[in-house]
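BUG-436 | component: ligand-complex export | severity: low

The export step for acetyl coenzyme *A jobs runs without errors, but we want the raw record kept on the ticket for reference. Input record follows.
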Amino acid sequence: MAPNPSTQVGTATLTYGDKSATLPVLAGTLGTDCVDVRKIQGDLNVFTFDPSYGATASCESAITYIDGDEGVLLHRGYPIDQLAEKSTFLEVAHLLLFGELPTAPQLEKFTSGVMRHTMLHEQIRRFWDGFRRDAHPMAMLCSVVGAMSAFYPDSINTHDERQREISAYRLIAKMPTITAWAHKYTTGQPFMYPRNDMGYAENFLYMFGAVPTEDYKPNPVLTRAMDRILILHADHEQNASTSTVRLAGSTGTNPFACIAAGIASLWGPAHGGANEAVLKMLGEIGSVKNIPSFIEQVKDKNSNVKLMGFGHRVYKNFDPRAKIMQKTCYEVLGELGIKDEPLLDLAIELEKIALNDEYFVKRKLYPNVDFYSGIILKAMGFPTSMFTPIFALARTVGWISQWKEMIEDPTNRIGRPRQIYTGAAARDYTPIDQRG
Ligand code: ACO
């Protein structure tokens, strides 16, 4: 349960037919007030209809706050730009999971707890033998994370606080190993075992880039950039994948199954798959001279073409993460000595044109976190198919924090929406010889 549960700040009256319902209006610490409609079925015998949840708050949460009009993102109250600038991924993970930035002893304990869980059960390694070499790494992540429930039965009792904590540690710790191994399998290189003497992001870059025949120490500037990318993707309130994790978790299923469901949901191009789609789009546009005709296609409703990396359900202003991503992009390209990156030139020009075009201005479409992340990851040597898995690796901490918060909320019930039924009314079975 949130430490400061919402309070009633008023009422709203809904009248339907000859009946009225007085509904409480609830307010949290920040953000839009919410009409609590839970009683309306009993009072008025109607449901609310909000198919893509654009006007629905599905839970109380004390983890992340977004003000989409102002472009604000806070984790436990701390602005994302301060966390990205001053903090580390494991500090942010502690903040999301336990509610506070860790003290030095707490951070040491948390770091050693996470880093001691980085190995996978050796039998899990054999899962990779079953995948095709060209399988998308997100397919590998979904399956391997789901399979973890078969290997760690000692941490799947959701009623046991200690087991919940161990499963959180396991997921945060093992995701870099799973993600790096997905890449190694694709390339045919030997899997590299984790190094617990390295930092979290450093260990991931090591398992991704190293081979057993040579010493390998990840570049510190790139390690810092990777840590920042992980922070920027760590949590984002009740988005599609987090809501998927919560809905799965509301049934009481184990945390590994819930996170596998979250990974599946993240994969889509409207969500985490957008970073991969941005690079594909930039490649297809090819040159600055083709931007105007591409923009015309985007504006044509019949074309089904979207400007990937633009627009957001909640942000109607700059995604604050996109600004930090852009800065990180310059740092990474500078460190790598890349002076001329045609994709970056293309992205900057595309952004400039889109931000001045009436279509995008009217609809308040701004770059989101994915617009620049792909360019950074490409420069760091990641193939495009690894972009969404890296997002999943970072988001695992958000998913597991949201799952834990939900399980610990005594008001939690199974999630079960209703529908407007538009099918046939009741009718009798027709024998096959009488069907026309
Ligand atoms: N390109 C062109 N037009 C767009 C775009 C876009 N990227 N995004 C939204 N629009 C248009 C819609 O067609 C709609 O136009 P209309 O009013 O004429 O019908 C209008 O802007 C409003 O958009 P919605 O469809 O209401 O936006 P919604 O909240 O449903 O979708 C989404 C948000 C999925 C992010 C959408 O903007 C999109 O598809 N963007 C591209 C994919 C992307 O970058 N996803 C990453 C999101 S961030 C993340 O998951 C980390």
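Assignee comment: Attached the raw record above. The longest helix spans residues 161-187.
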